[in-house]
Design a protein that fits this description.
Order of helices and strands: EHEHEHEHEEEHEHEHEH
Distance between the termini: 9 Å
Strand order of the largest sheet: 1-2-3-4-7-8-9-10
Shape: globular
Helix content: 25-40%
Structural class: alpha/beta
Length: 300
């Protein structure tokens, strides 16, 4: 089974002070896709620099030619499908059709209350996500959309000429719960997981077993709608599993990690670009060697 290697670049560096260099390096190293988080801020980075995802991706599109670009992930926490669709259509045009939208239900972090709203319950997040994704799909595939929903409305919202990628840019749907996985099966060109939070501090074997269960849920959801299992990419955002540190200690360690997860059916692994003095600290030279040497060892 083929395996793609991608990276995620957190938007913490000013564009003219290392930010641009990271995106150019990602293309030079041969990564399949370079993603960024779509948050207003995130966890331990809250009191430091943090830039917007869409402007960052627009700038990245202007200084790269081949690498795919995307969010990992966008959520309804502070976005509306109508305005998001317009931004995505424009970004797909600027990049020449190289955009993937990673999208999830959101969480209970800083984004959840930044606009002054009450934090949504898990049920409300799931309800909103179930309305958000189908509406966004319509907005990116139809020239004009009117929709009156429980949470989101559109009145003759137009997105002309549509995406460069047809019928629209791909969705990579992040989900582990039953409703989200069904959305991934129906609307996703890819499914995304970061693993199971219950075993982030567990053993590698426990993590693999949890991921095996998640893959099984996806395949069941695909079967229920008559979709072929191989018709959807399976993306693992690394950096949260029990091996999050050890897998970046050497090329051999990463190849071992990648091989075990490829056996579960994953088709894309996403590695965080190192950030010094953070949870994503790693040796830059090893990171670059993983990008350039691991694919050949994995037979990619």
């Amino acid at each position: 089974m083929s395996l793609r290697l991608s990276t995620v670049i957190l938007p913490v560096r000013p564009w003219h002070d290392g930010g641009r260099d990271q995106w150019e390096r990602a293309e030079r190293l041969g990564f399949h896709t370079a993603y960024t988080y779509d948050h207003l801020t995130w966890r331990t980075f809250r009191d430091g620099p943090w830039f917007g995802a869409m402007p960052t991706l627009t700038a990245a599109a202007a200084v790269t030619d081949r690498i795919r670009l995307g969010t990992l992930v966008t959520s309804p926490n502070f976005r509306h499908p109508v305005t998001l669709a317009k931004e995505l259509m424009s970004l797909d045009d600027i990049s020449g059709g190289r955009i993937t939208l990673g999208i999830g239900a959101g969480g209970n972090g800083f984004d959840a209350t930044a606009l002054g709203q009450e934090e949504w319950s898990p049920r409300e997040r799931a309800d909103r996500f179930a309305e958000f994704v189908p509406l966004l799909d319509r907005l990116l595939t139809e020239p004009a959309v009117t929709h009156q929903g429980t949470f989101y409305s559109a009145e003759e919202a137009r997105n002309i000429p549509g995406c460069v990628q047809r019928p629209r840019l791909p969705f990579a749907v992040a989900a582990t719960g039953p409703r989200g996985v069904k959305l991934a099966a129906r609307y996703g060109q890819a499914w995304v997981t970061a693993g199971d939070p219950k075993v982030f501090e567990g053993t590698p074997e426990q993590s693999l077993e949890a991921l095996r269960g998640q893959v099984g849920k996806l395949e069941k959801a695909l079967a229920e709608i008559g979709r072929e299992p191989g018709s959807i990419e399976r993306v693992l955002l690394t950096g949260f599993t029990p091996e999050r540190s050890s897998m970046l200690e050497s090329v051999d360690a990463f190849v071992d990690f990648a091989g075990r997860h490829r056996e579960l059916g994953f088709t894309e692994l996403v590695v965080h670009a190192p950030i010094p003095d953070s949870v994503f600290a790693a040796d830059e030279s090893v990171f670059e060697r993983i990008a350039t040497e691991a694919p050949s060892q994995l037979g990619v």
